[in-house]
Amino acid sequence: MLQETVIDLVDRQLVNALQIFPRISWMQLGKILGYDATTLARRWARLRNEGLVWTVCYQQPEHLEVELPAMALIEVDVRAGQREQVVAALAPLDEVIEIDRTSGSRDLLLTVVHSSIATADAFVARSIASIPGIRATRTRFAHTLYKDGARSHLDALSADVLLALRRAAEGFAGEPSVPTPLLVDVMRSMLPDARRPAPEIAAELGISTTSVTRAIHRLFGSPWFTAKTDFAHHALGYTTAASLWYRVPTPELAAVGIDVAGVPGVRMSAAILDRMNLAITVWLRHTHDLESLLTRIEHAHPRIELCETWLIPSVAKRSGAVLTDDGRFSHQISTSHALAPIGAQRRER
C-alpha cells in the first residue's frame, strides 16, 4: 500500500526539482541539490518502478493561433455496483483525460478535451452516455483554465534552489518553433517518459541523435509544449482531494480564478459556462484542512458563493495516465487530440 512506502525529504526534493525541469541531467541536478548524481538516478528509478512518479508531455493549443479545444467537466451517475466497470470502459478513451471518483450525488467526475463544443457534446452522447452502467451525465464546459496540474508543484525546495533550477531550464531551452511533424514525432516518443534518452528516440524514429537532441531543446523552448512530472499523491502525504464549485460575480471571475490558483493545494482552477462558474480542485493532507482553505478563499473574496463541495476519495486517470486502485501509475493513454501537428511544416531531419 502507498502508506507503507517510505518517501523521505530527498525524494520530495527530487520530485519537486523534476517538476520544475523534467529533463535536467542527473549530474547537473546533483550539483544543484547537493547530492550524488548516481543516488538521485537510483532513487528516481525506484520511485518510477513502483509507480509513485511518472512524466507526461502534451501540446497546449492555447499558445497557438488556432481555435481552442473544448474542455468539459462531466458528472456521471452510475448504477449501483457498476462504478468500476464504467471506469474500466472510460479509461482507454484518450479524450477522457481525467477520471475522479467522487462523493455525493454523482459517482464520477470526468475531464474531457475535444476539438470543439459540438464534437465534445457528440462524443459524450456517443462514447460516454452509451456505456453500460451509466444512468446519466451532466456536462459543463470550461472557457478559461487558470491553473492545471502542470503548474501544481510540491514545496520542498528553497528559493535559491528553485532559482537555480529555473535558470538551468532556461539555459536548456532552444529556439521556439511551431509544432512541425518532427517535433510532434519526438513529443509522441516522449509520452511514456519525458526523460527518455535521445538515442533511444532516434532509433525508434530512424533519425540521428543530433536531430532528436535539437528537437528536444526546441520543444522545451516552445510555449505550446508542456512536460510534467506527476506523482501518486497519497505517497507524498495527500490523503484526499476535493472539487469546489463557486458562483462568482462575472466582473470578478478572472481575478478570483487567478488568485485562487495561487492558494497552496489548489491543483486546478477553471472558469465554467454555468450558473456555478468557477470550478476548483484542491489536494488535502487531511480532510479538516478543507475548512481553513475555504475560509481563506472566502475571506479574500467575500462576494463569491460556495455552491457545492465534493470529496474525491481516489483518482482513476490523471492527465492521460491511468492509475491503479491505490493511485500508482499503471500506463499512459496517448492524448492524440492534443498531439495533432497543427500548422505542420516540412519535416526536418
TrEMBL record:
InterPro entries: AsnC-type_HTH_dom (IPR000485), Dimeric_a/b-barrel (IPR011008), Tscrpt_reg_AsnC-like (IPR019888), Tscrpt_reg_AsnC/Lrp_C (IPR019887), WH-like_DNA-bd_sf (IPR036388). Keywords: DNA-binding, Transcription, Transcription regulation. GO terms for biological process: response to amino acid. Residues 74-142 form the Transcription regulator AsnC/Lrp ligand binding domain. GO terms for molecular function: sequence-specific DNA binding. Residues 7-48 form the HTH asnC-type domain. Signal peptide: none annotated. GO terms for cellular component: cytosol. It holds the Pfam family AsnC_trans_reg. This is DNA-binding Lrp family transcriptional regulator. It comes from Microbacterium natoriense. The lineage of its organism: Bacteria, Bacillati, Actinomycetota, Actinomycetes, Micrococcales.
